[in-house]
Amino acid sequence: MELAISLLIGIGLSATSGFRLFLPFLVISVAALTGHLELSPTFAWLGSYPALTVFAVATVLELLSYLFPFVDNLLSTISIPFALVAGTIITASVLVELGPLLTWSLAIIAGGGASLTTKTTSTLLHTGTTAVSGGTANPAVSLAETVYSIIMAVVSIMAPVLIILFFGVILWVGFRILRRRKRQSGLPAHKPR
Fold first, then answer.
1. Within a domain: 105
2. Residue 51 pLDDT greater than 90, yes or no
3. Is 95 helix (H, G, I), strand (E, B) or coil?
4. What angle do CA 123, 134, 176 make, to 5 degrees?
């Protein structure tokens, strides 16, 4: 049961890293320092005050950067591999008392997969919003993603079972976006007269 809870916490925080790369690290640091989260001994440094400071500064800079149209698209695109790595590290950091093979296997598959799923959804959302609104709606989308990320990160630690619901919503939105894009690409370029 403890493994399942740790894995849900890891998946939830990893999925958050797909929207905002540094936010889950900040939440992990705060939760570890306040005693709400136990970290694997290898990743105990995440619960230190220097790490907290670095993650706080990085999170603020990232959140501000996402409020600028077209900068958000660039950040979404270039951060795809970083989100995958971050998701893997986040999940590995909360899997306590497992052997290295099982820890890293679960971290890569569950954590990396969750972060890649949300990062892909985010990138598609930002690209679609830019195409439709010329970038004017991007700050609102970024703000909504940030709020969703904060809620998801806190819920991951406080009520990890709810992560199944949060991740289900992300998957549903991602599939709807992909289906809409597929439908739009199948339409003729112009209507016959």
1. yes
2. yes
3. coil
4. 40
Range of the domain at 67: 2-164
**pLDDT tens digits along 69-102:** 778 778 888 888 999 999 999 999 999 888 889 8
Which structure tokens are listed for 183? 């439908």
Q: With both helix axes pointing from N to C terminus, report the angle between 71-78 and 138-158 in degrees, rounded to the nearest 10.
A: 40
In this structure, is residue 136 part of a structural domain?
A: yes
Domain count of the fold of the chain: 1
Contacts by residues 52-57 (CB-CB < 8 Å, ≥ 24 positions apart): 52/26, 55/22, 55/25, 55/26, 55/29, 56/26
Instruction: Indicate whether 57 belongs to any domain.
Output: yes
> Is 127 inside any structural domain?
yes
Count Cβ atoms below 10 Å from residue 36 Cβ, excluding itself. Answer: 13
Cβ(12)–Cβ(155) below 8 Å: yes
| Contacts (Cβ under 8 Å, ≥6 apart) of 86 | 14, 17, 21, 24, 25, 115
